[in-house]
Structure formats: structure tokens, C-alpha cells
Input
Amino acid sequence: MRVVKKPSSLGDALNAWIARNGMVKRFDLAEAVAAWPEAVGPQIAAVTRAVAVTPDGTLMVRVSTHAWATELGLMAPRILTRLNGSKRGRVLHIRWQVGPFDQP
Output
């Protein structure tokens, strides 16, 4: 007698594939880009844009001026704490890139 498995939902199949391929950590890291404006507040969000996160946990952030990059560099430990929340070690470093960015 042949046993027939009930088909799984597309969501369940996709979640299983993501877990099997080790992509959960990358998706957790990518959340940092979306969380950036809330983590830093409106004043800093107005002069910065989180661009990407490297696989080793470095968040790349575009900054409008060198002065802001210097100031934010001093604030980095507090920003990392807010950005990571309860997920300690999610984003390990922030790399500031001075230059223009597209407005939202």
C-alpha cells in the first residue's frame, strides 16, 4: 500500500527551503535596512539611507555629509543597540559612505 502525503502549502515549502539553504540569517540581516529609519529617528533618517548588509553583518549606510558621518560614527554603539533590539549580534558594524542618495 502506498502512503500519500498531504501537499504542503507554498508558504510552508518556501520556509523549509529557506531554512535548508541557510538563508534565514541573510533575511534577518536584510531586515536591518528596513528598520533603519525607525531605529535612528526622523532627524538622522533624513540625512542617511541604509543601503545593504554584507554577509558578515556590516550595514552599509549612505550619509549626506562628512560631518554627519563623523557624528554618527560616535553614535554607532547606541545605533547598533537600537537596530539589533533583542537580536544581539545581528548587525556587527556600520560602514558610513558619504555621498548623495535618492530621496524616498
